[in-house]
Amino acid sequence: MEDQEFQPYQEVQEVEELIQEEIDNAFKDVKTQVHTFNSDDPPEVKAMQTMANGSTITTITDTSATKEVISDIDEKTEKDVLSSSISPIPGIPGAIPTIPPEEIPNIPDWVHIGWKQVADINVNDPNNISEEDYYNQILGEFYFGKLWLNAGVVFVSIFVTWFVTILGGGLGWVIIICAFVASYFKISVNRFYRNARSDISRELAIEKLETDTGEESVEWMNEFLRRFWLIYEPILSASIVQTADGVLVASTPGFLDSIRLTTFTLGTKPVVIESIRSYPKSEDDIVVMDWKLSFNPNDLANMTKIQMARKVNPKIVLTIRVGRGMVGAGIPILLEDMSFSGLMRIKLKLINTFPHIKTVDLSFLEDPKFDYALKPIGGETFGFDIANIPGLHSFIRDQVHATLRPMMYSPNEYILDVEALMGGYPIETAKGVLKIKIYGAKELRNTERFGTSDPYCKLTILGTKELARTKVVNDTLTPIWNETFYILLNSLTDNLNIEIFDFNELTKEKLMGMATFSLPTLEENPVQNEIQAPLSFDNKSCGQIRFDAIWCPVAEPTETEPNPESNVGILRFAIHQARDLDPRLSIVGQYNPYAEIFLNEKLVYTTKTIKRNNSPIWEEAVELFVTHKQNALISIKIFDSRDLVADPVVGSWSGKLSEFMSEVASRNDWFTIKDASSGKLRLSGIWKPIILNSSSFDCSYVDPIGIVKLHIKNGKINKPVMGKTDCYVKIKVDGDYRGRTDIIQDSINPEWKDEIFYIPLHSERELVELVVWDYESTSKDKKVGVTEFSVDKLITKNEDGTLTSKGIIEETSQLTLENSQRGSLTYAASFHPTLISEKATKENENTTIDELDYQSGVLVIHLKQAKMEKRETSVEIIVDNGLFPSAISEKCKKQNPKWDQIMEVFIKELDWSKITFNIKQFNDKNPIGSVIEEPASLIEKCKESNKESGGDNGITIPISEINNATIDLNVRYLPMNYKLDPSETIENMGILHVKVQNAENLIGVDRSGTSDPYFQFLKNDEKIFKTKTVKKNLNPVYDEEFVTNVFSRLRDTFVIEAYDWNQLGPSKKIGQGVFNLVDIPTFEAIERKIPLINNNNNNNNNNNSSTVPSSAGSINLHLRFEPQMISKKRITSGTFMTATKTLTGVISGGGESVVKGGTFMVGTGANIVGSGVNLVGSGAGSVVSGFGGMLKINDNTTATRSIKSQEVTESPTEVSPPSVLTNTPRSSSTETTSHFIENIESVSRPELTGNLILTLIEAKELVAADAGGTSDPFVKVKINKKEILKTQIKKKTLAPTWNESVSIGDLTPGAASSSSIILYVKDYNMVGKDEEIGEYELKLWDHIKLSNNNKVGDTIVKDIWVDLIKVPNGKLHIKLEFTLKAGKK
Predict the structure, then answer these.
(1) What average pLDDT does this structure show over 1200-1214?
(2) Are residues 742 and 774 in contact, defined by beta-carbon separation less than 8 angstroms?
(3) Where are the alpha helices (DSSP H) in 545-629?
(4) Measured over all CA atoms, what is the biggest interatomic distance in the chain, rounded to whole angstroms?
(5) More confident residue, 1049 or 1165
(6) Is the pLDDT of residue 1107 over 50?
(7) Which SMART domains does the UniProt entry name for this protein (predicted)?
(8) For residue 1377, which of 1132, 1147, 1080 has the smallest C-alpha distance?
């Protein structure tokens, strides 16, 4: 009965064996290979070899196609075998393209391809081998591994213990040996239990399938995998080899020659799915399963005889090559007997569109178990498994778990985006662009023990690679960066970390604070402006940071609409390989090539170096954010890596991005290498357009929306520690320089006059920062305090989107520094919009506006590049009579600089404005060249040039003072309906011509009833002119003239004081009058009678306290005002300022020039002392008592008076009217006295004389005469052995600045008496004689040379550095201004 019941089961088993035998016969020629390679082959060739070694599914296989490569075949046969071996596998999805056989280098005969060689199976039919041989082989291996090996280990351990004892070893050595033996047996037993557990589990799973519905066995899938694995293993191995070998090449340390894969196989046993458990109660679009997986290649259960005969375990051999060339050697590292088991949760997110699976989330529910045998030395024969070292096996296991736990151990998940993968984009491709603008931070903590921190900002995600970094702002706790970054993101699932560090060059940088921004919030709100994120450090608040974040995703195509056309997007650019590089530049004929990728001539990526290969395969890709696809230029340079010399370029390629994408679309991916006789590059690219968020994401330049008119009025500085301060204010908008005020010396309550700035704005959210500095002449300027305001409080935004002004807002803001109050600053500000906005343009498309009809507007300057052999250059832009630049470019380090920078300046009056481009080098104060243009002319030239070229090429302008130098720029003009205040117009400043005609009915204060009257003229309380004295006359006639600069007709005050001259006592004031210039017409001569008032009684002296005003007569003046641009004075400058433009011409600036039309007028006050005359100016100065005709002029002087030399008199000579300065270029004279005019012979002009103004500007590189390493220098000027000037003493400096002048009148060109002027530079000593530290003999007529074209009124200007004698390398900076006038008849 039992036999009958067992018979059906036996019949079924026999049928299964027959089926299995048929399957084995069908698959007997399907092979899984052990992939063995040449270590020098690149990853792509290794991948092709692994794929080529796969087999197709067929019942009859031509074994010659997989014939093993042996050493005795001839060259033709070897080529045929290789061609057959690497042919592509038809019908296998996912197969990567192969390289044509003729392009693959010959494989050495010692290389074995295929897993059969490792298993030692030949090409004959395995059925010819007897069944007994199979079982003997398998059982013998089993017993040798399980019994004889264990017995051998016991014997060896006993022998080693005995031997160590014989050599004198003690108990410690015995313990060490026992530890090794115990580690071995522990690992061996664990592996035995693992194999046994796998067999038992499999049997239990079969039984459980019938009784338990929770965990389902999938033996049908395992059976499918066992067969499919033989087909898929080559493709999987190819992918792994290509990735791993590429990483190894890129990660090879410098002391090793190479690290390469030489053997690789995953074996014949696939991964086994032991069970699957499903969770049906999950959401409808979520599938959740728990998969129990194992990979145990040593398991022999359920294997047929043929499968056991062909069984190959996983095996990886890594060869490390040490040394170079012929002296190198390879060290194999063997990894085998790998096994793995674990429980993984798989979660599928389903979608309606293809591929219907959005994401796959993978997570291990428990720590997986794995095992391996790693033999770093000795290989297969003598290799020692490092797992037998006590403690090392567990250490490696713990390190693997520690690495994988945050990645994919529960509750962490590894997310695989199947939709993106199947959609054609790589998994790690960017999903969009994050535009983040970092404005600044405030209230930071100071991490410096001495001084103030130098903060910079760094952006990271999950502490990974740094994404972006701002510039370093020195010495501040309220940094303003105003920098914009475009960051490519693969997802929005993480947080963005914003870290602020204190920059240190020598020590470790300290974290000042960190803020976190949640990227997932951008999915719902992609545009987030004005984010105020708190900063924290050690869970304590330490300030806040302000930034914008705008997310712009990649445009995804839909079923009905393709990708939209966009000029802005992400380019995924891949460089695959090069072929047949030109070997001429290599001595040995082989390169170590690497490639650099450039976008618009900017280096964006560098590939790894492939050693000794003229056909390198890189297979690397980089993603680039492109703002203008049509104009973008992609270029590649291929270099040969060399150790001791510079890497030469062996080939290059370049092309426009639009043309490159067209080639890619036409399936052309091979491009010819330029600058070489041979070679090609295989490139590819994917263009992903970006969805723009309207105008909030604009990668191009944004026109200004208007200007802020800012008037800096006064300040109040807390009392400094020592003395007073020399204050000035710097203006910045979002960290960019916009201007600065002049210096107010020696004051803690500075007041600025006419310091008005016009600041272009691009957004109503911009921040204006006002920084007060204390000027230091010999050291770095010190910051006093900072205040700021947002321009949005000046602007009203209307419903239609237009912007209007809220009017003038005046504020007194607190100055703070390092969170402490340092004083206050008073300013007034107002907003003025531009005329043409984007909205207005759209609404009035048919309306044409001639911008030149508007006098005021913003001039947008695109500074492109310059042609000049100068390094470290920048450009400063000065508008009109500005004392300091309105805009400064970045510094370019290279010759022929390329700035490509856009700057804006405000033009008040287009018809009369002047714009100057000063070229600066290094940190020099003086420019090395300049360009001076009228904005109206510049606009016209650029419009005409752009119209002819059809683009925005602009114009090229020569640079004066630099030979053959030019600058390229383009300008646009944005007009404004701005109404100038009368104080801002050109008619408010200019030159006033005054002729003193006569006085009437003056007061007689002498005993004779008459007076000896003279008049003194004061401008803004500073004396500018004094008439001669007319004896005993109450109606004197003077008929004298003088001129003076007027900076503001509205604010400048003019006072006339009448004095009675006394020979013995002080002069007595007998009257005073006041007149203003507001109602004086321009360019017209008018007569004015100015009434005089006497505040004292007529017959009393100056001590009478009566203040009853009474009439004191009148004075008749002849006045004429000429509007003209007047340069301001710079207090600390070494440059002598003057009138810069009249209504008919423009000055060229400093240097050598010929000025037409009159006397050069300077300063705002004079110290005049003549022989027998007591005239004291506005400041202290040396007394000139023995030499008539010398006039000392301080830096504050605006009018000069010429006194005839050799004739001491109180009667001044006639002063010519001021010059009309022409647009003549100045020559370079900053470091040399060699000028082109010096090479021209001076023409004798005896009919002419002239007045000379000698200005001592500064000195440098003086001798240190004091013990402290400095000097107290001053200069004495002598002519004919008589001292005419002694400058102020500058304490403790070797580079003093004086800026003091002296005037010498009636000099005859070529006269020996005035041809030599001696300049003595001395060191002041309080006790003892002053020490001479330098001397220069000024031979005037060697520098001032006349021609036949010179005439009366011309002024010759010479600005030079001269070498001092007696001082090595000492130099003195002087300026000569010689004005011609008619000589004596």
Answers:
(1) 32
(2) no
(3) none
(4) 171
(5) 1049
(6) yes
(7) C2 (SM00239)
(8) 1147
